[in-house]
Amino acid sequence: MWKRDEAAKPTPAASGPAPAPAPAVGQPPAAAAELRTSNYATEPARAIERSAVNIGKSVVIKGELNGSEDLTIEGQVEGKIELRQNVLTIGPNGRIKAQVFAKSVVVLGEVAGNVTASEKVDIRDNGSVDGDIAAPRVAIAEGAHFRGSIDMQKPGGKGLEPKPGDVKPAEAKPSATPTAAVTVTR
Amino acid sequence: MLTDLLKWGSKRAEQPSGFASPAAPRADEPVMVSKALPKFFNLLAPRSAPLLLDFGPVVGGNVEFYGERLGCKLFIEDLIGDVDRHARAGTTGELAASFKTRFRHADGTVDGILCWDLFDFLDKASVLALSQQIVRMLRPGGVVMGLFCTSGVERSTYTKFQIVDEKNLRCRSHNGLGGARRALPNRDIIKMFEGLNVSESFLLKNNTREMLLRRP
Sign of torsion, CA A180 A181 A184 A186? Predict the structure, then answer.
C-alpha cells in the first residue's frame, strides 16, 4: 500500500504536461543547457521573436531580395540578397546561390556566392560557403566548409597609408581557381 | 542536512565538465612555443590591410586571429590538402606542375606567407616549384614563415597548426594520409629561396627549425 501511494504521487520531474519553461527547472544543469543550446541559432531565434521573417523550405526565389528585417532562409534563393542593416540566417535547409549583403550573416546551410557583411560572417558546424567573404569578423566552426578568400579589412583601415602600386589582382575573379577547398574537421 | 549540503556542493563542482569547450586542449595535441610567429605578425602589423596566404588547412580560430591581429585579406590555399589528394591518387609527380599554375596572385603583391611545415612533405621538384612561386608573389618587405624538420622520418602524419596565441601553436593531427618527411639542410633552404634573405632562424626544443625569410 505504502509503495503504491508513493508511486502515485506526481513528482516534479514527471508532472505531465507543464508550461514550456517548467521542465528546465526540474532538470539537472547539463540537461537544462542542452535545452538552451538545442536550437541551432539561439541569437537568430531571439531575433525571430522580434520580427519573424522566414522563407520556408519549399520556397524558391529567383531574383533580388531586399529588406529591413532580420531574415531566416530555409528555402532556395538565386540572385541577390540585400539586408544591409539586418541579420541574415541561412538555415540548415537553406540553399543560396546569390551575392549576399547584410549586417551579419549566419550560415548553417549552403551558400554559393560572395558574402559581404558589415559586422560578422559566422559559418556554423555543417555550414558551407563557396565564395569570397568580406567582413571585419569571420568565424568558421569545426565541421564547416569554406572555399574562397576572406577579406577582413577593418573599415577605415588601421595601418599605414596605401602602398604605391597596391594591386589586388585576387579580387578580380572570385573562386576562379581552387583557392581553398577544405572541410574543417576535428 | 550537512551531507545534503556537501552533495549539493560537489554537484556544483562537477558542473563545468558537462560544458567542456570543444577547443579545450587534448593530451594528444601538444602546444609548442613559437619564436618566429610573433615576429611574423609584428612585421605585418604595421601594413595596411596586408595580403596573407596560409598554406595550411582552414582552422577557424586562425582565421579569427588573423582578422583581429592584422585586419588582412586572407587566402587559405590548403596546399596540404593538395599534397594529400595527389598522394591518394598516386599522382605526386604532378604536384610540381600544379604549383606553377595554381596561384592567381600577381608578381610582388603578397605581404605574408605561412608555409608551416609543408616543405617537409614535398619532393625536390615540388619544393623548387613552390619556392619559386613564393619568391615571385612576395612583395618587397614581405615575409615568409616556414617550419622545417631537422631529421627525416619514413612516415609521418600532417599537422594542423592552430594558433593559441601569438607565441603558442597547438599541433593538431590532420586526417590526411601523411607521408615521408625530408629534412632540408639550411643551405638548400637558402638556395631555393634565392632572392629572399633569412631574417630569423630558431631551432626549437622539439628540433623544429623556424625560419623567417624576407624580400629586401
Answer: negative
